[in-house]
Amino acid sequence: MKVIFINDSTSSPNWGDRAAATSLKRMIREAGGDVILSITETELTRTLLTEPQAEVWDRPVHRRGRDYFGLLVPPAVPRLGHRLAGRLGFPRGHRVPERWDGFPAAARAFVNDSEAWPSLRGAARLADVAIIHGDGAMVANGNIPRTMLFLAYVFDNDV
User: Fold this and answer.
1) HEC states along the chain?
2) Is the pLDDT of residue 89 over 70?
3) How much is the pTM?
4) C-beta of residue 99 within 8 angstroms of C-beta of residue 150
5) Which residues pair with 83 in a beta bridge?
6) How far apart are CA 139 and CA 145, in angstroms?
7) Does 143 have pLDDT greater than 90?
8) Which end of the chain is more exposed for a tag (fewer CB within 10 A), N or C?
C-alpha cells in the first residue's frame, strides 16, 4: 500500500512530536505500507501549496529570524503585508483559504496548476491512501490544521 504521510513532525524541535511521527511511520511500514511522500509540519505552516526547496528542508531544525519576528510582532502585521503584496502583484502561490467556502475554488485552482507542488500531485496519482497525523495541531484556524483539512478535501473530492 502506497501512503502519503501528511504532517510529518520528525523535523520538529519538540521531541514528543518527533517520537509520535516516527512511531506512526514505523507502524505504517510494519503494516505493509510504503510512505512515498511525507509532507512536513514546516511545509504545512506556509499555507502556500508550492514545492518546498530541498536545501531548506534538509537542514537541521533551528530558529530562524522569521520565527523570532512572529514572537514580537502582532499577527495583523504579517496579514497586512500579505494583502499588500497581493495587491501589488507579487506572486503568492496557491494559498489555503481561511474559510471552508473557499475550499472548492482553491482546490480546483491547485489541481489545474501543473506547477503547484508537483511531488504531491505525482504521489497522489500513485497513492492508495493519505494519512493525516493530527499531532494535536487540529485546533483553531491556524495554518497547519487548515492546510491538513484542505489536503484532505482535495484527496477526498478528486477535484
Assistant:
1) CEEEEEEEHHHCCCHHHHHHHHHHHHHHHHCCCEEEEEEEHHHHHCCECCCCCHHHHCCCCCCCHHHHHHHHCCCHHHHHHHHHHHHCCCCCCCECCCCHHHHHHHHHHHHHCCCCCHHHHHHHHHCCEEEECCCCCCCCCCHHHHHHHHHHHHHHHCC
2) no
3) 0.69
4) no
5) none
6) 7
7) no
8) N
Dihedral (C-alpha) 154, 117, 109, 153: value to the nearest 10 degrees? 10
Per-residue confidence (pLDDT) for residue 55, from 0 to 100: 36
Mean per-residue pLDDT of the chain? 76
Amino acid identity for residue 72 in this structure: L
Residue type, 129: V
Buried b (16+ CB within 10 A) or exposed e, 120-153: bbebbeebeebbbbebebeeeeebbbbbbbbbeb
